[in-house]
Amino acid sequence: MALKKAGKIVIGSAVGGGILYAVHTNDYDLNSLGIVRFGRAAVCVHKRSAERLLELCKVNGGAFIKVGQHIGALEYLLPIEYVETMRVLHSKAPQSPLDDIMKVLRTDLNKEPEEIFEAIDPEPLGAASLAQVHKAKLKDGTTVAVKVQHPLVKAHSLVDMKTMELLVRLVAWTFPEFQFEWLVEEMKKNLPLELDFRCEGENAERVRRTFSCFPWLKVPQIYWDLTTDRVLTMEFMDGGQVNDVEYMKENNISPKDISRKLGDLYSEMIFVQGYVHCDPHPGNVLVQPAGNGNARIVLLDHGLYLTLGDRFRCTYSKFWLSILNADLKQIEKYGEELGVGELFGLFACMVTGRSWNSILSGIDKQKMSSQEQNEIQADASKYLVQIADVLNRVPREMLLIFKTNDLLRSIEYALKTQHSMSSFITMSRCCVRSVYLEKLKKCNSKWCFVKTSASEKWCQFKLTLYQLYLLILFSPIGSLLRLRS
């Protein structure tokens, strides 16, 4: 019965996991009482207007801006009118007046801004619901980026949490099948960390060390003597947004190269290191030309990171490998280990952004067709109750992974690289490394270590052969052979 049900379910992404989680993970800049914010939201939902939704997000600020940013990333799932309207929030959210920003600098740095900075650009480089970033020049001529928290965001954060708790209870009372208590718990856990910019600075330094194996990854240096819990001063880095295809054309940057590098980075983060940057929306990922057709990726906004335990990371890796192998029994087994029970089919669809039929056929063997994409977009909203059930069952780590997956897929769609097969090979390699690293930890003899290491090398070699097969299969020669057959 579960398989039959799963076979009918087509779901493009964790709609519940992505959008609902985005409501509470970041930035709560209230400008009114919670009940007023709730009223605005209720009116807006009924009007179903992208322009009014944008206005709602700007007026309410805080969590509503984060929802708008996420909607602006769901190019593969939502009507284009919503996507194009809300995309502006990725870098142009409502901003605080410059005088208010100067007050925060004066209070937190214990000096007049003029004593520290030669100049501060009055127009922010970008604004979000938690803070805004200004380009500035230090007295020694060094150009920096200064991230300054909106003045009242901390004071209003408690109201936001209470508002969210009220909303969740109202939903649970009105619609018993939707249970989102985890929303409040996750918000209470993550919001204090995001409100302390020193934590963000520490995250930035850790990610630079951890992923130094990628020479093309750039993370801004932190100026600790000019950093507090509300002010973060860092190295200035420019570039084009990762979804700006025109910028890439002008600077001879290959979208395929950028997509591949992002896949390498996030596969390493999720499956191997277990340390994941959870907000890769286009405003936080820049690209720079590096000469000779090469390009760098600049990763910004390190306020929210997810640390994955070894057990979860290994099980999630096995779940992905079972999907890539189209192994139904293993999908069911590891889906159950991840807590979703008989909804393992829906869970697999949510994780991959593919239909159940595609999963059974092998998602690495066939590209997503326009028919499948349209089917996903049309059918996703029909299964919100089941999605809510999955979200209640999965480990809490999965909530941020869903959100991260949504944003990464939206970048692929913007770059038109969603049909690339190379990402599956990269993911498979990282999953294999993850599984065998756990096996090596359990070895208590040299023979066990040698045998396990050799087994991993053999698996990686088979992946290399398979990669060659896919290159031939999807090459012009392979296309001709398929047509003749």
Please compute the radius of gyration using only Cα atoms.
23 Å
Tell me what portion of residues adopts beta-strand conformation.
5-15%
Which shape, going by the Cα principal axes?
globular
| Number of DSSP helical runs | 23
State the low-pLDDT regions, or none. Answer: 1-47
Mean of all residue-level pLDDT scores: 80
Q: Give the termini separation.
A: 36 Å
Specify the helix fraction band. 55-70%
Biggest sheet details: 5 strands, antiparallel
Briefly note the structural class of the backbone. Answer: alpha+beta
Please report the total strand number as a whole number: 11
Descriptors:
485 residues; alpha+beta; five-stranded antiparallel β-sheet; four-stranded mixed β-sheet; 23 helices; 10% strand; disordered N terminus
List the helices and strands and how they pair.
Layout: H1 2-8, H2 15-25, H3 34-47, H4 50-60, H5 63-71, H6 80-86, H7 98-109, H8 113-116, E1 117-120, E2 126-127, E3 131-138, E4 143-149, H9 153-174, H10 181-194, H11 197-210, E5 217-218, E6 231-235, E7 240-241, H12 245-250, H13 255-273, E8 275-277, E9 285-291, E10 294-299, E11 305-307, H14 310-324, H15 328-337, H16 344-352, H17 356-361, H18 370-379, H19 384-393, H20 397-415, H21 422-441, H22 446-473, H23 476-484
Parallel strand pairs: 5-10
Antiparallel strand pairs: 1-3, 2-3, 3-4, 4-6, 7-9, 8-11, 9-10
Helix pairs in contact: 2-5, 2-10, 2-20, 3-4, 3-9, 4-5, 4-6, 9-10, 13-20, 13-21, 14-15, 14-21, 15-16, 21-22
Kindly describe this structure.
- With 485 residues, the protein is an alpha+beta fold.
- It is globular.
- The longest helix is centred in the last third of the chain and has 28 residues, at 446-473.
- The chain has helices at 2-8, 15-25, 34-47, 50-60, 63-71, 80-86, 98-109, 113-116, 153-174, 181-194, 197-210, 245-250, 255-273, 310-324, 328-337, 344-352, 356-361, 370-379, 384-393, 397-415, 422-441, 446-473, 476-484; strands at 117-120, 126-127, 131-138, 143-149, 217-218, 231-235, 240-241, 275-277, 285-291, 294-299, 305-307.
- Helix content is 59%, strand content 10%.
- Strand 2 (126-127) and strand 3 (131-138) form a beta hairpin.
- The protein contains 23 helices and eleven strands.
- The strands form three sheets. Strands 1, 2, 3, 4 and 6 form a five-stranded antiparallel sheet that branches. Strands 5-10-9-7 form a four-stranded mixed sheet, covered by helices on one side. A two-stranded antiparallel sheet has the order 8-11.
- Residues 1-47 have low confidence and may be disordered.
